[in-house]
Request: fold
Amino acid sequence: MNPLVALHNTHVIHRARAGGLLTRDRVHALTAADLTVAPGETVGVVGESGCGKSTLAKVLVGVARPTSGTVSFKGRDLWSMPAAERRATVGASTGMVFQDPSTALNRRLPVRRILRDPLDVHARGSRAGREERVRELMALVGLPRALGDALPGQLSGGQRQRVAIARALALDPDLVVADEPTSALDVSVRAQILNLLLDLRERLGLALVFVSHDIQTVRRMSDRVITMYLGRIVEECPADRVTDRARHPYTRALFSATPGLLDPIDPIPLAGPVPSATRPPNGCPFRTRCWRADDRCAAVMPDFSAASHTAHRYRCHHPVEEDQSTQDLVRQSLPREPP
Reply:
């Protein structure tokens, strides 16, 4: 199956600011990213804050332009298209759900107008047809029709996120990117929004990229999980293998920090300095915190290696064995007491 969207050797570098002035420092937000998303597939993206997850999400939907590399959508290079064609392609075929619906929605517009705006911009159907589509969208995400005249400030957090999801679906996109879609919501509402996204994915046949720091939720939502560290994709693993078959030490450490309630374990401690995205270290970026690192890790960035499963790859000179338990890794990673 041909990929819906593909990144190849994609970099995003920002100029850093210091004291309000542009400096010569550069932030390496995304480095050498290679990624494909197939039609109907759900790809989860995990990693600590500042690892490049949101930058990757914006690149996938054409909001952020890469510094170098390519972004292909349905086989065509997005950034070689004329600007008008690119906007039409991205606007009609992709949707994005942002982290905080309070800031993502125009607080001065009623729900009906928010949902109709994409239809108006892309001149979809007649005026009556657009109004009917707004009603369909509200029903699709479980919003009562009576809320059509409400302003975002009059809605609950969960209702606002439902509006944001409906807006992302307005033009029947092939791909929806959800960037931390539940982190700003109360715990009691999160499960409702996650279940809604799962239901919509099945009903509409969407490709979904789900970005979150909640790695157990990502595992549940996804077909495949991408682990990012300091702007790099360091592992790509089927979701049903990521908890106990992940090969990269960082992926194992992430999942050990939020274990299942039925099988609690101690988290793998990550000691050592967290590197800066403005001055990333030589070699493997994780080596400053990795208990398995050696001189080779400091000298050479590892290439991708393939695991026994065809859809599993990782970048590590000293990968975790597939049958090695996380409990064993916890014991290995603890600092040894002097004799």
In short: Residues 93 and 173 are 4 Å apart (CA to CA). The mean pLDDT is 89. Residues 187-204 form the longest helix (18 residues). The chain has two domains: 5-222, 226-333.
